[in-house]
Specification:
With 349 residues, the chain is α+β, with helices and mostly antiparallel strands. It folds into 2 domains: 196 residues, Jelly Rolls (Sandwich); 120 residues, Arc Repressor Mutant, subunit A. Helix content is 49%, strand content 17%. The chain is built from 12 helices and 10 strands. It has a 6-stranded antiparallel sheet. Strands 3-8-5-6 form a 4-stranded antiparallel sheet, with no helix packed on it. Strand 5 and strand 6 form a beta hairpin. Helix 6 packs across helix 8, helix 9 crosses helix 10 and helix 9 packs across helix 11. It starts with a helix and ends in a 9-residue tail after the last helix.
């Protein structure tokens, strides 16, 4: 038997095993996400078939959801979190996903604990990578890989570990929107998604530090870190915001340069971003059912109800008094859509 024939024979034997794993994984995913009311759908790929899977989750539950049940033990998973609060715990070290943040982690052999908070409108994208896929794509890289990713690609011990948390940029938010609604014809989507997977890897899996870090990369990293610090300060002072001068002193930057850096990174000015954070917080409070409109307005620092209502409507798309009903209607529509037709869904991983 020739080498080619042997290779084909080996592939034919491994393919049924991989297909069986994919089927088991498909059934397992359905069971795990069933409590989410049909808010899970796969956009591209398959963890066991292609070695990579892009999945979208959108749900709200009255109780805490055990998120870690969906993790593949031998994987690297990246989470791009648009809305809702989630946490991943590894021996006391925690990645806390706030809205508009991203981070990756290694589940290991079911060693991670992860959960999604109750009464939050969760909207997040996950990309699950199998070792063989990352080895194929990254094995020839020049050593600039993030240490956790590099160890995973080289076949290090399959133990649970956490990467760093990053704030999503405006461009990354736009990319998520495109992943949900690809701007290409149906027949072109497989190769389009392949390209997007590589873009995501290039953005999140590479890192240079110390003497190896290029000057331009260092400037970009410092800008991201500075903006992350500003966002943290805005969250801490939602009710009584700091002045631009005070924020500049906290992050060690002039107000003018800080404003330009922040807008370039996020696509919004600092006041616009603050208003967005306030309205998202108010939406969570209203949706919880424990706050009326006036109480939610005061809880995020608005003394004028009319001004709050105007800002809320501009940001969230409806007046605050109707928002809980709109959110409930959206959830019902999502469930009906899931049951009635498979919108952009591939075979679950």
């Amino acid at each position: 038997m020739t080498d080619t024939a042997k290779t084909r024979s080996a592939m034919s034997r491994s393919e049924p095993k991989r297909s069986r794993k994919a089927l088991v994984s498909r059934l397992g995913e359905a069971v795990v996400w069933q409590p989410a009311g049909g808010g899970w759908r796969q956009l591209y790929g398959g963890f066991y078939d292609l070695g990579v899977s892009i999945e979208w989750q959108e749900f709200e539950l009255p109780h805490v959801f055990e998120w870690s049940r969906s993790f593949h033990p031998d994987s690297l998973e990246l989470c791009l979190n648009l809305g809702g609060h989630g946490s991943v715990d590894c021996g006391g070290c925690v990645l806390s996903f706030e809205p508009l943040t991203a981070g990756f982690y290694l589940p290991g052999q079911r060693a991670l604990r992860a959960w999604r908070d109750a009464r939050h409108a969760h909207r997040f994208l996950t990309v699950e990578f199998a070792p063989r896929f990352l080895r194929q794509q990254l094995s020839r890289c020049d050593g600039a890989l993030h240490p956790l990713v590099e160890d995973f690609v080289r076949g290090g011990p399959p133990r649970a570990r956490l990467g760093e948390l990053h704030r999503l940029t405006a461009a990354q938010e736009q990319r998520i929107a495109h992943l949900l609604h690809p701007p290409v014809l149906q027949g072109a989507r497989p190769i389009w998604y392949q390209g997007k997977v590589l873009e995501i890897m290039a953005e999140f899996f590479f890192e240079r530090r110390g003497e190896d870090e290029l000057f331009c990369d260092r400037q970009k990293r410092l800008a991201r870190e500075r903006v992350d610090r500003v966002v943290a300060l805005l969250r801490q002072h939602l009710v009584e915001p700091l002045s631009l001068e005070a924020i500049g002193r906290e992050v060690g930057c002039s107000p003018f340069h800080l404003s330009r850096t922040f807008s370039a990174e996020t696509g919004l000015t600092i006041p616009q971003y603050l208003r967005r954070l306030r309205m998202e917080r108010a939406a969570d409070l209203l949706q919880s059912g424990k706050y009326n409109v006036t109480e939610a307005a005061m809880a995020v620092g608005y003394s004028s109800l009319s001004h709050f209502s105007q800002c809320f409507c501009q940001t969230m798309g409806c007046c605050p008094g109707l928002y809980p009903n709109k959110a409930a209607a959206r959830k019902v529509a999502l469930n009906c859509d899931k049951q009635g037709r498979a919108v952009g869904i591939g075979a679950p991983s």
